[in-house]
Design brief:
The protein is of the alpha/beta class and 252 residues long. The chain has a domain of 173 residues: 3-Layer(aba) Sandwich (Rossmann fold). Helix content is 34%, strand content 29%. Helix 6 links the parallel strand 9 and strand 10. It is globular. Bound molecules: adenosine-5'-diphosphate and magnesium ion (2 copies). The site of one magnesium ion has 2 residues, from loops. The site of one magnesium ion (MG) has 5 residues, from helix 1. Belongs to the ABC transporter superfamily. Ycf16 family. Pfam families: ABC_tran.
Amino acid sequence: MTKFVVEGLKATIEGKEILKGIDLEIKGGEIHAIMGPNGTGKSTLASALMGHPKYEVTDGSVSMNGEDVLEMSVDERARAGLFLAMQYPSEIAGVTNSDFLRSAINARREEGNEISLIKFIRQMEGKMKELEMNPEFAHRYLNEGFSGGEKKRNEILQMMMIEPKLVILDEVDSGLDIDALRIVANGVNSMRDEDRGFLIITHYQRLLNYIKPDVVHVMMQGRIVKSGGPELAERLERDGYDWVKEELGITD
Ligand code: ADP
Ligand code: MG
Ligand code: MG
C-alpha cells in the first residue's frame, strides 16, 4: 500500500528559503490538491520532491513506503514510483516521444524484463487514442514545437504509460481549453487506483470539477496554511485567498 509522507520540508533556491516546513501524508487511493497564489512555492515543492538539483532541501524528511526519498537520486525516485508532470515541460531535441516513453518505462523495470516493442506500441497507441492525440506525436521530438495543451496531454500520456505510484501534477490544467481539460481529467481519473496517490497542484478550482480531490490544501508563503475537503476549493474560487490571509493574520 502506497504511503508518501512529507515532514517539515524546507528548501531553498539560490540561498533563499522558499519552502518553510511542509507536512503532507498521501496514501494510495487518495487525491490531494494544493492550491495557492502565484509565487508561494507550489512548483518548488514539486521540484524538491523529485530531486531537482536547483533546489536544496535544508530540513525535513520525505518517505515513500518507509524509504528515504531524499537519499535517492532523481532516477531512483522515478524507479520508486514518483512521477512529476511539470508546469513547463522541457523540449528535448533528437529524442522522439516514443523513444523517451519506452526508456522511461524500461528504467522502472528489472534488466531482462523490458517491455516488448510490440506490446509497447500497442499500449502507446491505445493511450494516445484515449487522449485524442494525433498518432504522429509518437514520432515527434519530445515536446519540440508542441503547443501548451499538447505538452500537457503528453505529460498525461507519460503518466499513463509509466504507471507511477505517486503522481504530482503541476498546473496540468493551465492553457487547456475545456475539451482538452476534460480529456486530461478523464486520463487522470482512469488512473485512480487503490495503490496510487495523487498530488494535484492547481491555481484554479476548475480542474477539481473534473477530478474530485479527497483533501484540499492551501499553500501560502511556503507553508500549507489550511486543509479541508473539496468545499475549500469552491470557497477559494468564489472568494479568493484574502479571507484565508485574514483568518490567519497573514499580511503581505
Ligand atoms: P508557484 O509555483 O507557487 O507559483 P514557485 O515555486 O514557482 O511558485 O516559486 C516560489 C518562489 O521561488 C517565487 O518567489 C519564485 O520567484 C522563486 N523561484 C522559483 N524558482 C526560482 C529560480 N530558479 N531562481 C530564483 N527564484 C526562484
Ligand atoms: Mg506559478
Ligand atoms: Mg508553479
